[in-house]
Batch of 2 targets.
Target 1
Amino acid sequence: MQQERLGRLIEPIHDAALAFARCLCRSRADGDDLFQESLVRALDKLETLRDDNAFRHWLYRVIVSVHRNRCRRSFWSRLVPLGDREVAGEDFSRGVDRARAALATLPPEQRETIVLFEIEGWQIDEIAALHGVSASAVKSRLVRGRDRLRTFYTKQLGIGDVTPILVPGDSP
């Protein structure tokens, strides 16, 4: 039965995959919705997964695909503020809220790449394979995403100079 197979495959990576989905979204609730929608899609397509050892990579690809489809469908969402609070001048009590607000300003491809590399600990080549792009494209997304995050922290939150994190192989 496919439901039992999905349950067995998702169990060891459930928390990490859920955290990944939440990091891609503007709010925790949106992340939970993204994760649930991805699991439904995964269950529907599970028969196409031939090698159970490839499940983690396959599921993350499903999450990314669902996320991109949601972003395309909801053009208006770019005009909606983050939650009920205004970001500029807001005194965030937790770093998670600040990070989520900053990540929400990134285009989906940059946000996915930053989350996979910085939070999930994926390697450049793994991200490149997931997104179907070159390692150079992944590095460019990381650099551009970090620049946008730095700008967000400096301008919107009034935080001073933020030291950039370098991608292995990049020069300072």
Target 2
Amino acid sequence: MIVLARHGQSVDNGPPQRFSGSLDSPLTPRGRDQAHALADAAAEVAFAALWTSPLRRARETADIVGAALALVPRIDARLAESHRGAWEGRLVDDIARDEPVAWAAWRRAGAAFRFPGGESLAEHQARVLAVLEAVRAGDQPALVVAHGGTIRCAICASHPSGLEAFWSIPVPNAEIVPLGEATRA
């Protein structure tokens, strides 16, 4: 069994929201509190493995959870958020205002969507599915601490609409999301 969890609130995804992507935004105090609450929820499952993205917001969350569960997080770059190119570090509201056509394409998502100068959702999904095979081959059950986009890409793999369903999947900070076995590549 694989269970996913998004990192706690980061400096970039608290108000005013910025596109972090591959930037290394740390947790806020609220995000650290969320990570401790995630650790409490995760303690109800006897996890045998803990995996995380190398990005600081996910690593910080996984370190807090790992300390509570007596597990050392395994870091894998394939769990990182999508590389969001020219949008990284920019305020979400500014992009929506300044680039309405590109913003509308992002809000439709889909396999063909590519961040300007960055990664496509299909590329992101391919690396996420590859790492989930590695997680599946390891100790179980496993908790994977990652990012909203990474979790959506994983779930969309088994969704009838594929990556077109990207925005229909809520991924709150520091909450557990079970991953169905239907996501096998």
